[in-house]
Amino acid sequence: MALTIRAIRPDDDDDLWNLLEPVIRAGETYALARTLTRDQALRYWTGADRETFVAEVGGRVVGTYYLKANQAGGGSHVANCGYVSAQDQTGKGIARAMCTHSLAAARERGFRAMQFNLVVSTNTRAVALWKSFGFEVVGQLPRAFQHPVHGEVDAFVMYRLL
Amino acid sequence: MALTIRAIRPDDDDDLWNLLEPVIRAGETYALARTLTRDQALRYWTGADRETFVAEVGGRVVGTYYLKANQAGGGSHVANCGYVSAQDQTGKGIARAMCTHSLAAARERGFRAMQFNLVVSTNTRAVALWKSFGFEVVGQLPRAFQHPVHGEVDAFVMYRLL
């Protein structure tokens, strides 16, 4: 079935939380407090400083991502994104579709580069995916992420020009 | 004269703005909008997510820095700081004193590393200073900063364990 990506609507909140909750509670890939409430999580993910999208397949929301400026002022031409896919839909190309969409959206908005600030080194699937999109590991942060299973692990800064 | 460093008080706002305004307006070292108002700048520099300090010499505020967690959740053991010294006081060791103070303050609060996310590569004085404190360039972000004089220049991610 075709995957479509669209801007969020107010009635997406339940679907967004269904996607975000397991990722936040696991605490293995995003530097977000595992104790965030639904409201805090939605406020973060759909904040006024970003655009938020959902990916749908057959009317079901199966993924979400946000696009924002990574920094203000002299850093505002560099975009930043975060992506979450439904955990029962891994391997179906949802993250790939969202990344493709986000790179085009970032270019349309005039961004000239995209940066991921903290890619957890144990998240090998994500690292491989971003590399396939031309992102490079431009930095390695020693022991910068406390992984609930693996303890302190390195994180990567990934970056590509647009 | 002795330099002392203390937590900010409400009546420091004028002194803080006097330090921040030229740095923000110049736009050469911090990724902050050059158009920030006084209120916006003070809200940023003294936000609830950080501790802010001033350095005084003979009763005059000659520098300020903040200390905060660089990320939430699994990244919350890594500190982040920003430092500003009075422009007519360069070379007097104010930044050095603030960096020393911040490393001790970060350790006291249980942080296990410190990260600077965007050190503008043309800010060679700062890069050399942080290196002298054991920070390493762990990442290089191509063209990540729009310098008002030099155009798009690289930025560094600098990092050290505590």
Distinct helical segment count of chain A = 4
What is the N-to-C succession of helices and strands of chain A?
Answer: EHHEEEHEHEE
Helix/strand/pairing category of chain A: alpha+beta
Unreliable stretches of chain A (pLDDT < 50, length at least 5) are none
* Main sheet makeup of chain A: 7 strands, mixed
Counted beta strands of chain A = 7
Average pLDDT metric of chain A? 97
Sheet with the most strands: spatial strand order of chain A: 1-2-3-4-5-7-6
**Any idea what the shape of chain A is?**
globular
Q: What quaternary form is this?
A: homodimer
Task: Specify the helix fraction band of chain A.
Answer: 25-40%
Strand content of chain A: 35-45%
Biggest chain pair contact, residues each? A-B, 37 and 37 residues
> For the CA atoms, what is the radius of gyration of chain A?
15 Å
Distance between the termini of chain A: 30 Å
Question: What layout of secondary structure does this protein have?
Answer:
2 copies of one chain form a homodimer.
Chain A: E1 3-7, H1 13-26, H2 38-45, E2 50-57, E3 60-69, E4 78-85, H3 94-108, E5 113-120, H4 124-132, E6 136-147, E7 151-161
Parallel strand pairs in A: 4-5
Antiparallel strand pairs in A: 1-2, 2-3, 3-4, 5-7, 6-7
Structure at a glance:
Two copies of one chain form a homodimer. Chain A is α+β, with helices and mostly antiparallel strands.
Overview of the structural elements:
- Two copies of one chain form a homodimer.
- The longest helix of chain A has 15 residues, at 94-108.
- The first copy, chain A, is an alpha+beta fold and 162 residues long.
- In chain A, a hairpin with an 8-residue loop joins strand 3 and strand 4 (78-85).
- Chain A has helices at residues 13-26, 38-45, 94-108, 124-132, and strands spanning 3-7, 50-57, 60-69, 78-85, 113-120, 136-147, 151-161.
- The first copy, chain A, contains four helices and seven strands, in the order βααβββαβαββ.
- Chain A has a seven-stranded mixed sheet with strand order 1-2-3-4-5-7-6, with helices on both faces.
- At the A-B interface, strand 5, strand 6 and strand 7 of A face strand 5, strand 6 and strand 7 of B.
